[in-house]
Predict the structure.
Amino acid sequence: MSDAHAEHYPGPLHSPPVKIGGEGPAHGHEDGHVHHPKLQHHFDDMAQQAEASTLGMWVFLVTEIMFFGGLFTAYLVYRAHSPEAFQEASAHLSIGWGGFNTAVLIFSSLTMALAVRAAQTSESAKTQVTWIAITMFLGLVFLGVKGIEYTEKFRDHIVPGPYFDASRWEHPAGVEMFYSLYFCMTGLHALHMIIGLGIMTWLAIKAWQRSFNADYYTPVEVAGLYWHFVDIVWIFLFPLLYLIGRHYHHG
Amino acid sequence: METLNYLNNGHGLASWLLTKDHKRIALLYLVSITAFFGLGGFFAMLIRLELLTPAGDLLTSETYNKVFTMHGVVMVFFFLIPSIPAVLGNFLVPIMIGAKDLAFPRINLLSWYIYVLGGLFTLTAALTGGVDTGWTFYTPYSTAAANSNVMTAALGIFITGFSSILTGLNFIVTIHRMRAPGMTWFRLPLFIWSHYATSLVMILGTPVIAITVLMVAAERALHLGIFDPALGGDPVLFQHLFWFYSHPAVYIMILPAMGVISELVQTFSRKNIFGYSFVAFSSLAIAVVGFLVWGHHLFVAGQSTYAGLLFSLLSFVVAIPSAIKVFNWSATMYKGSVSWQSPMLYAIGFIGLFTIGGLTGVMLATMGIDIHVHDTYFVVAHFHYIMVGGAIMGYMGGLHYWWPKMTGRLYNEPAAKTAAFLIFIGFNLTFFPQFVAGYLGMPRRYHAYPPEMQVWNVMSSAGASILAIGYALPLFYLLWSLYRGAAAGADPWGAKGLEWEIPSPPPTENFGTTPIITHGTHQYAPSKEVGIV
């Protein structure tokens, strides 16, 4: 090190730590106050921990947008390439089941928000678990309807692949592409629903054990963010898959 | 008496494999990426041995295809992408911002296990017959024509991608939420800025390659036709989706290296960086503009000329923030008190080699030239100047710079200087002749070539041997330093920054109490800010 520059060096980067209480072990407990049992050692306080967790989930949801984005891109490319085939294929989807499922998911977003609210306001374990359970029930209804729809597609040989029945379509190649994307997109969405149900199960157990209250409700909030995101993906899937064929062959 | 630090705080295999300490996880990554670097290097040596003679005599063309594919897959996905972020970034990001750990220590450990799992998948594919599609997995090679190992290898990349996503997520949340009091954005070390930009690319790009691999998997397993023209699909869509990730992935490799160079140039010039905010924002600019240039890989893939023009222009634009960095590093050294320790040799090497790699990149972004040299060794030389001359130089420089901090030991400086020189000479001898051979028309990915190209290939293979020795040397003197090296002390380089104010090796919690930051982190000269405090 050259001494010529030494006089320019400022002091150490950080000032000596300010100690309020007596001499304590040097791991952040000097001020003597009792930490929340859920506070992890590397966070300063519960607010920092909660902010980190929610930001983490938001960043994760950004990656999810990019993940689904690849499929939406493929959808846009092929729909622009064969719009009539996409309308023909879309017209065959049941708008009744699709609309019903959309309503179910929107309602489940409401019950999820109420579950978060129940945790934030330290409602009883019973109330918290009830809202979580209703949300889970609605998720299961959605998956059940999806199962009915998938079964119909298998029965009618609309599933792409070797058993695809090309004879019933005017634009079989484009229709097969539509259903390839339909199964990839709704399948991936359903997988996210199933993962969501797993998270909610864990959440319900924790809520039953009275883990969540006004001081600590981050897991409920973060799971809620995820659940709303999965709902929103469906809000885009429903019109793109079910509604674009409404006017096909009907003027 | 030995003081308690992160290395001796807990012994045994379980204390390492179940650790949540970001510093120990960094070392887990260091060991695993070194293993993959060795494997990728082994494949490289096979390539250079085959190309020593014009005839395809050592490997059959099928085997050669597999060897260069595995070289690319292993080096890109299992060495270069995790190298600096997962090792140096993991170790330094929390320390440099005054935090005790990353925001999500368990997710950090999980990301290492995901990386290892992905690596095992790809190794399985390599051992059970190999993959011959090239590291780009272009359809229809990867869907119709290839064997089933493609799926195993691609799944390995899919899985490893999540390791990258989780690391990026962890860095972003940590940098936003875990900075010590007073550590404002513009007091952050430039290493942190570059890792923030890298993390943005990781979280925005990697999911796209993941879904693309899933679509290829669905196509193979369920007989869909998403990329199959016979079923109405479009193979060029695969190329678009692939390069939407894989071009920004180049910036995942080079941005952290740029962060390392910014630290090295300041320390070994004893000067604050010239134009701090320009260097910081140029990292973000590279990350953002880097997402808009992928089409320059598709100039000859049937993309419209107008799209080509736009991608060409945008590719020129991304050279501007890169050039800003080169100018600012040079200006930092200007009238600095420059010392030539081994990390600085790598930094100087980086600046020169990255400039060559970058300028040939501008040439390739010009459509007319690209059509002439497309798929030739000119392209191979160009991206090796960026990835090896740039990214690995930065990694080696950073490893040497922070090795005393990570281990508490000093390595043998003359040996380190020798290795740095060997790597620089070996690298140039390997790859500069490839510019010439490529410009003269030698195509990539062939195991045989016309005899008049032999002189360039012999030079290249000779350079590769020197390069191999250069890369092997640190293995010996760095490991030797662990047992016989002198104690490093907290700040062996006379450097500035939070990491040099805590002991080497650091204690498990990094800081006894959260530090309070009163001025910028690299104060080699007083600033106005210091006067105020």
